[in-house]
């Protein structure tokens, strides 16, 4: 499996990066700018007016959104706009035009967790999104109008992002139920890509600081201990990137080739690998960057504090790493299939 980006994907990444930078630096509304760029319609099928791209391209967009810390539920919106359009065309057109957005509940934990369609749900972007998606299992998605939800409490972990607990008991009659294969896995990977982008920004900011900050007449990056920590951080960042790219590619192959070569099981296992370490690794990278900056790293004025909170907020929605590690071990132990590496031909060395 080739995880290198194609020429077209590199161009897509660069154009999205430029557009997101312009969106952050300008005072224009973010939704219409993303719609004009085509980012909202990336994963929407072409027959519904979208671009019909895959999860790999979605990961590219969400990674850049994490780098610029966009105050927009991009992962949820690009994933669920097609589903919304299929049952509510007018509402879907509003999202495609940038006039509204879609958010999703925070508790998308996998591995035997019970998904409710009643009671209370934690969700973010409650002040801007028009639709809330509740993922009942790996296929069924309940779409609810945010304006008809009863907001129960607020818990704004990240400044500027309205996060709280909403009640959905009284709105089951207005819910639209749609199906999407591997819905939980797709959303988990897109959210992981966003925190990977945030971690990449923190790491790059820390490296620049090591080069520029001088003590006793030389850059603090000349300290060998800091060099080793930075090198470990680079390896950790590459591991995050490869794990997410592999999972996204496996999901695309599972969706495009149902029942072929066990790609569905491969995709689910790859997602479990991502969730078992990426949120923790991204948080450690952000904390490392703050430590490199010393006192200014923890101030509200410096961006690292905000990026760390973004990583923590999204990481909480993905569940605990320990839970996913246990689920991954159980999946491997309980599987009757041969490991993937045994299915490949390996040239044996002579005895």
Q: How would you describe the overall organization of this protein?
A:
This protein is of the alpha+beta class and 351 residues long. The protein has a domain at 183-339: Up-down Bundle (Butyryl-CoA Dehydrogenase, subunit A, domain 3), CATH 1.20.140. It contains 11 helices and 9 strands. It has helices at residues 7-25, 30-37, 55-67, 74-87, 89-96, 183-212, 224-256, 263-293, 303-317, 321-334, 340-343; strands at residues 102-104, 120-123, 131-135, 140-145, 150-154, 164-167, 176-179, 214-215, 218-219. Helix 1 packs antiparallel against helix 2, helix 4 (74-87) packs antiparallel against helix 5 (89-96) and helix 6 packs antiparallel against helix 7.
Which structural class matches the secondary elements? Answer: alpha+beta
Unreliable stretches: 109-115, 337-351
Number of strands: 9
- Outline type: globular
* Radius of gyration, CA atoms, in whole angstroms: 21 Å
The succession of helices and strands, N to C, reads HHHHHEEEEEEEHEEHHHHH
Reported by name, the CATH topology of the domain at 183-339 is Butyryl-CoA Dehydrogenase, subunit A, domain 3
CATH architecture grouping of the domain at 183-339: Up-down Bundle
Major sheet characteristics: 4 strands, mixed
| CATH H-level superfamily of the domain at 183-339 | Butyryl-CoA Dehydrogenase, subunit A, domain 3
Quaternary state, please?
A: single chain
Percent strand: 5-15%
The CATH class name of the domain at 183-339 reads Mainly Alpha
Euclidean distance between termini CA atoms: 30 Å
Task: Name the helicity range.
Answer: 40-55%
